[in-house]
Amino acid sequence: AAGPPHGPSVARAAARAVLEDAARLDPPLVLDYLALVDPSDFTEIPDAYEGEAILAVAAKVGTTRLIDNIRLTFGAPRPETTDHRSATATDASTTEATSSGATSPGAPTTPQGPLGATR
Predict the structure, then answer these.
(1) Which intervals carry biased composition (Low complexity) (predicted)?
(2) Are 45 and 53 in contact (CB under 8 A)?
(3) Domain range enclosing 40
(4) Average pLDDT for consecutive 10-residue bins of the chain (119 residues)?
(5) Does 18 share its domain with 70?
(6) Whole-model pTM?
């Protein structure tokens, strides 16, 4: 079972693809672990999982160990709200870019960082 079209299996595959590309660089990225886990108990989530998850990565580049994580939500989108505290990072970057004149309102933005990279 591959799971939903935008579910955990897709997130894992995208992360692996980026990390495999980085492993071919000089110096190469050497993966310690890639885990997509339930934030309540840090167990791996199944492909049919819905709800919040954490994508966690640890790797080395040369002698430097890199550790990072990002929260992801799978399943139905959260309801829209006017409360600014519940805005997502994408909402904030879109607002920032729009207010600086970098993009026009409604223009799509590309997430920054290795998981936002396109192949």
Answers:
(1) 87-110
(2) yes
(3) 1-77
(4) 74 96 97 97 95 98 97 80 48 41 48 45
(5) yes
(6) 0.60
